[in-house]
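Dear colleague,

Following up on yesterday's call, I've attached the two folding results inline so they're easy to grep. Please treat them as preliminary; we haven't cross-checked anything against experimental data yet. The first protein's sequence and structure tokens come first.
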Amino acid sequence: MALLDDVRKIAGVAERLKGPVGNEANTKALLIEPTLSALGWDTTNLDHVLRDWPMHENSSIDYALRIGDANVMFIEARGVNESLDDHSFTARAVDGANGEGVLWCAVTNGLIYRVYRTDEQVPTDQKLAFEVDLSRAAVGSPTDTANVPLLSRESLGDGSLALWGEQKVFTDPRVREVLAALAANPSAAFLDAINEAIGEHKVPRDRLRSSLGRVLVIETPPPGTRAPASTAPEPPARPRDTPITPDSSVTITRPDAPAPARPDAAPPTAPAPRAAAPPPLPAEPPRAVEVPRAVEAPPRPVEPPPATPETPAADSEAAPDAAPAAETPDTAHSPETAAKRRFLGVSRGSRDSATQSDTAPADPYAPLARPDGPFDEVDF
């Protein structure tokens, strides 16, 4: 911002005005007039700034700031190293401006500007509207940075300074303070005046007192100080969660169920309308799902059946007419088979073909046959 850049330069120059060089003449030339130029007052234009404006009783004031043909502010200056706490110095300038019909008057040492509204019917120190310290504004003080533009030609020309003073310092704060006092302890005359203004339907005094306490009790800063900028109220702090102990009772509710009402809770308000649900997304075409093929188990090896024990070729108690075991072509003519036939006295074809054949299985319980008859135990 160009104005703040100029303020920083002026504050830097003030650091060099120490000792005798910080006199009133150098303060005016190096600090005050550059500040007025930065605020839109052309110090070379007689329609903007006049020096040593004459007043009554052969006195004058250092600067008269003008808009058109009217003086809108007087400025009385001192050296940069001098204090502005001299009450007689301030009262003489403020009272002189009021006598000349000028609404605003400022006293300054080139760095600090104290601005007074001259027509207030209060002591001089209570006429103070605001103060600006350029050295604090140069380093970013919020209050001083906000108040610097109130001294501009534009602010005095469009009435911004006058409206700001009414709302922040003078009229509005005093009216609020008086109304708050009346609401806290209303007199009978005040209550009757309210009932008179209400008209036909009168309100009992006790109800009027309660209503005034609700409507007009307003906290305001004391007169002569600037009210702080309004800020949005902070949301109430959330209560900390209470740890659950074995003796605690816990009620489980659905997420969408309304919370139970508490005795100290404010009356419920109507729920805000829900936002419309977004349109559903288009359905995707079904995807082919590949079913994994069952893995075939390897074939289990088939175990061979247990071997059947061989039937003995002959039994000592077998019947003599039992036929020999079936012979295969490979064993029919073996020497062992022939010896068995000779021992048993059986020749091939000697038995009845209807009841016994070479290939018919032998009955293990049939008696053995021989030419002389069946064997008995003594033959072995």
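Below is the second protein, in the same order (sequence, then structure):
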Amino acid sequence: MKLVLASNNPGKLREIRALLPPGPQPEIDFLTIGDQIEALTHDVHRVRGSTLVPAGTEVRGFVFDLKAGKGGEVEIADSVEDLGEMRRDYRRAALDEGWLAGAWLEQFTLWFDEAREADEVVEPNAMIFATAGGDGRPSARTVLLKAIDERGFVLYTNLDSRKGREAGENPRGCLLFPWHPLERQVIVAGAIEPVDAADADAYFASRPYGARIGALASPQSQPIADRAVLEAAQAELEARYPPEDEVPRPGRWSGLRVVPETVEFWQGRPNRLHDRLRYRREGDAWTVERLAP
């Protein structure tokens, strides 16, 4: 038998063994992943698929709370056919109308600061940006938030990319901040508008040298023969614009601002009865409403 263990401290092997049932001690494949059941499931599949594990070896998952001195087996989905068995209950926090800030920007800033301070959130400014072209076909990708104020949320891109083209054809979009470790999401929907050229110039000039060269080298979203095309373009541009020289902003590289019409703050709760509070613009005013989960 092979046990796959999850613990917050791999140095506590002796304590964990003491929590195991009496009798012959099994082989242990130690995984340090905290108590995140989704991550445990992923690693169990990795162990099952490893050539180091003999065929037919039983693989089980356990989570241990060393402070409480308790351990227990967790149910692990055997394959993608058992996705219905994968679930996690959210109990970290709640969200009440009385706790909300007076404006969406203030509330977003509060949550963003908490996400930035949380070690578990790797890139707090990462957001999923969804658009649709004139034909209505949607697309989505992960981008980075680079500016925010009362006007909205700003990202930068090549305007000839798919998202840039779709924003031009159908200037409406949606953003989602997936702060999973905090059991939170923020969902923004609204119109898309271009940022001022001066703002785009200032941000482009602030980027690292390699990122500025990359913006010139890449025909974003366009088919290319192979990676050598990019590397050749990069080398040519580095020779043309050495690090001590100014790298010009590409004419079709700029910023897009999502001007919010709704900003929803989603907090996971037990039994899928999540808290969803949404700021919604009505003319020049904003109202807050609770949405059923």
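For the second protein, one point worth flagging: The helical segments are 13-19, 37-48, 104-117, 162-169, 197-206, 209-217, 227-240.

Best wishes,
A.L.
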